[in-house]
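Hi Y.,

Following your request, here is the sequence exactly as I used it, all 418 residues.
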Amino acid sequence: MDIPRGEEVARNRRIRRIITGVIIVVGVVATTFALSRLKPAAPTVDRAVVMIDTVKRGELLRQHRGLGTLVPEDIRWIPATTQGRVERRLVQPGTHVKADTVLLELSNPELEQNLQDAELQLKAAEADQANLRKQLETELLNQRAQAATVQANYHEAKLQAETDAQLSKEGLTSELNYKKSKLRAEELATRNEIELQRVAVTADAARARLAAQQAQVDQRHALYELRKKQVEALKVRPGMDGVLQVLPVEVGEQVAPGTRLARVADPTRLKAEIRIAETQAKDVLIGQKAIIDTRNGVVEGHVSRIDPAVQAGTVTVDVAFDAALPAGARPDMNVDGTIEIERLQNVLYVGRPVQGQPNSTVGLFKLIEGGGEAIRVQVKLGRSSVNTIEILEGLVEGDQVILSDMSAQDNVDRIRLN
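Below is the corresponding structure, written out as tokens. Let me know if you'd prefer a different format.
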């Protein structure tokens, strides 16, 4: 038979239930609190897809790199000096030409007519000069003959006067005859001096007239040479040895003075034009060492010119070569250029992160716990090179950091590597 339980048993049961409920509630609250304090699990990144580098200390070679092309140092555009019509194209682009090679033939009937007129005018002026010279020579000879006659009469009168003077002393002739002879001798002496002066003046006048005529001949000759050069210019020549690069005119085309007819370049003298980012161009100086990769060999050179203008975010830098170019180098060939800026001694550096800019602070993942995990640290960067960058703060020698783009993990400060 059943034995009824007392109130004490029921009370104990209620107490146990209350204690159990309290324990359960406290456990739930404690568990919830503990779970709320737990950090989210670190995401996992495959080690094979990230680039890891070790921080080093030593010499940092700063370099700037850019793309460019090989261009001739000596390029000449041949302009049209006169108006004309293209009659023939004698040479095709890519052909090696000499300084006197005829590239094009132009025609201009007006210039040819002007040349003939100038030649006739020159011949007429030369004929007039020859005729004038003969006339002046004749006039001078006549003047000299007249002066010679007067001189002969003067000497004859002088001798007569001397004879009459002697005879007058001996009483063989009258004093009157002596005085007449003396007066005639003096008159002829004066006329003789005048005639000699006339000869000199006539000679000077002849030289002046010949000089004036010579000036006209020279003027006609200069005009003739000008017309001749204009006609010769209808045969277009490069004026230098090289390779014909461009011939932009066609047969039958009418060209005006100044029109570019051809471009010739010397392929044996090339330079590299490298385009450097404008943010890096401030470090480039004339004379700095440069290395040009032609993809067929590497050649050393130096910076010879820096373009003062910025185009499309880049600055053009000319590099002159210090050694011979490899075989196959030719104008317009694409090249890679690396310019040596400076060498920094005893600095802390690492490979350049994808998002690392010079003189900036970036967050990088540093490997910890044997490389199984990485935490984000703030790193202050300094001067940069092509593939490396200086570390100012945030890392020490021997640290390993991830250089790859980790923008997908911007919301976490810790990752796991597997």
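Residues 47-71+269-417 form a domain with the Elongation Factor Tu (Ef-tu); domain 3 fold (CATH 2.40.30.170).

Thanks again,
Q.
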